[in-house]
């Protein structure tokens, strides 16, 4: 008990001393201090000030990093989906889109270059979740007649996310006067939309019918 009280007193004295030193330095600099200025305290006002300085340019770059990360994750996932697919059409479709995705990544890198920024992704939890759900389907429906329908559903969830992102980036690029970036982003969007349509056609043509449970006699 005595040791605990002694430690508490030492902490009080140390904190008090640090506070006095800090106040003395602030006074000598001719500035006022606040409770949040004390070392170890977080000042939420600083966060607000930083947020207030962010513009559409920052939002564009942030979203560009998001989709860049997403495309790289998708590039890794597509070969797995191709191997898991049961139909030859499904396998070929996933591999074709893998090649398209590589081209999309290269276009995004050109957009980064136009901005004078290094091509760097930002972790996208949304695409990670969508891909994880696709992996669950591959595991849970492996060998079942519903597998291809599930893979197509997962792939379309990916496509819809990408379509939304590219649509937003194209609009913002126009607002920001990034004329050279617009056609690059539009090319990616057109490929995503075409892939989504192909997946719908494949689902309707065979995968959905195959997935239906057989009626008992």
UniProtKB/TrEMBL annotation:
A Pfam family it matches? DUF892
Q: Which InterPro entries match?
A: DUF892_YciF-like (IPR010287), Ferritin-like (IPR012347), Ferritin-like_SF (IPR009078), YciF (IPR047114)
The cross-references to Gene3D superfamilies, in alphabetical order and at most eight, read: 1.20.1260.10
What protein is this chain from?
Ferritin-like metal-binding protein YciE
Origin species: Rhizobium wenxiniae
């Amino acid at each position: 008990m005595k040791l605990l009280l002694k430690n508490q007193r030492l902490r009080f004295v140390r904190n008090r001393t640090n506070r006095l030193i800090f106040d003395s330095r602030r006074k000598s600099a001719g500035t006022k201090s606040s409770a949040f200025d004390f070392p170890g305290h977080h000042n939420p006002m600083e966060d607000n000030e930083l947020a207030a300085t962010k513009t559409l340019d920052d939002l564009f770059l942030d979203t560009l990093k998001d989709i860049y990360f997403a495309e790289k994750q998708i590039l890794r996932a597509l070969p797995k989906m191709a191997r898991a697919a049961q139909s030859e059409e499904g396998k070929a479709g996933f591999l074709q889109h893998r090649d398209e995705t590589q081209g999309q990544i290269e276009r995004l890198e050109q957009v980064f270059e136009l901005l004078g920024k290094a091509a760097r992704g930002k972790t996208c939890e949304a695409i990670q979740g969508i891909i994880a759900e696709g992996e669950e389907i591959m595991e849970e429906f492996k060998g079942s007649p519903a597998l291809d329908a599930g893979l197509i559903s997962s792939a379309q969830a990916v496509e819809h996310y990408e379509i939304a992102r590219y649509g937003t980036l194209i609009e913002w690029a126009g607002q920001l006067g990034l004329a050279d970036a617009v056609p690059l982003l539009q090319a990616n969007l057109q490929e995503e939309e075409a892939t989504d349509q192909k997946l719908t056609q494949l689902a309707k043509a065979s995968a959905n019918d195959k997935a239906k449970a057989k009626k008992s006699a």
